[in-house]
Amino acid sequence: MNNKETGRIDWPVFGISGGVLILFVILALFDISLVENLVSSSFAWSARFFGGFWQVLMLATFFVGIGLAFSKYGKIKLGGLDKPELSLYKWLSIIMATLLAGGGVFWAAAEPMYHFLTVPPSQDGKGIEAATQGAIDTALAQSFMHWGFLAWAILGTISAVVMMYGHYHKGMPMKPRTLLYPIFGEKLRHSWFGTLIDAFSVIAVAAGTIGPIGFLGLQASYGLQEIFGIPNQFSTQFSIILAVVIVSTISAVTGLYKGIQYLSSFNVRLAIGLMAFIVIFGPGGFIFNHFISGFGVYVDQFVTMSTFRGDTGWLSFWTVFFWGWFIGYGPMMAILVSRISRGRTIRDIIIAVSIFAPVISTFWFTVLGGSGIFFELSNPGSISEALNAAGNPAAMFAITEQFPLASIISPLFLILTILFVVTTSDSMSYTIAMAVTGEGDPQRWLRVFWAILMGTVAVILLITGDSGITQLQNFIVVTAVPVSLILLPMVWLAPKVAREMARDQKIIK
């Protein structure tokens, strides 16, 4: 690798990505209705022309990854090291805390309830009646569809294989453009095309991170009012986001193997502790029974649910929105997974990200969302009224208030929610800094800059109400269009580079 190139800031990427975000904020403050119209029409166009393509891309990414993991190529060691840099627990905790954090807590309570109260159109004609015992498993299965195997597979499995090949084995910079190195070669290192690839990837992941930061301000502010009586107003939301920015900045500055890893590890421990409490003192039998049966429905209808095209309005609101969000994270997550996975095999990475993480995520959704369904069945309106009146932020607290020791459990869930978003913010600040320098240990001031910028954008957009945050979140789907075209070649490039590395490592002749 050319040492003169590493550590340099790619100012065109920096300027384009930062400039687009700042322009978005200015437009939102100047005329939020204009932004709503622009984003809505762009969103509709993206969902119409790319929704089906994204569904196929997600399926192909998952199956190609599984095929690689359980083939002879699964033995390939990546990153030029014989032993992993991180222990298994530390490695998995960073993966789980970063990737689930963007929406796992925010959606885990609300989404299963939505699908329980209104049966998904993919289940039409099966005689399922909403808000009844028969709607439980399909509600959970639909949530598993959105947060399970396909969602995780696009976040740094086969794309991480190609990234690690390009960076560690061929000396390319740790930037999104390196994903296309097997096609374009060295010419990508200094090209306007490479600049656009990097800029689009940074914009997509920054928008995807700012959205959860802003929604956290809304959810945590609502929670503080419900638990402690603190007014749910802009000053409270601002204080929450300021705290997130400060903590995530400190974490990003201390580095990947200190602050980010420690925070992720603590977060995972707290989540495990809360899950254990709910299973023991909450509806444990209900949770286990419907996790198993709901997962059975998910596996049984995996392909048909993944390829459902029957209700385009519903798809745009749910599946296509989520797929756009996760695809937008794809290149940056490939960088993060590559950075922490040196010495791991292809099999290690794909099993961890495409199998282990989805199973844990779906169980988490069953613990929180399944408990909500249990309480709603026992006392109709106990969860749905809060959800319908105040939206997603209300669902989690309506559920936690039903548990024993609610005065302790509810604040702990509030802390967990905040820390989950902090772990996303700090790791993405670090990863974006890597993407604009091309190296694994970027300058501290650059990590600080992105942490502060994302928090600042979230705060400014809150001035417009939650509309600005919502429009930025929808903007992710638009930015996912070019990013999906970057990720498509991974389907055939990952097997290609795996074959080359297998020859180098004498796994095949």
From TrEMBL:
Keywords: Cell membrane, Membrane, Transmembrane, Transmembrane helix, Transport. The keyword Glycoprotein does not apply. It comes from the Bacteria. It is a multi-pass membrane protein. GO terms for molecular function: transmembrane transporter activity. It is found in: Cell membrane. The chain crosses the membrane at residues 12-32, 52-70, 91-110, 149-168, 196-218, 238-257, 269-292, 312-337, 349-375, 403-424, 445-463, 475-494. InterPro entries: BCCT_transptr. GO terms for cellular component: plasma membrane. This is BCCT family transporter.
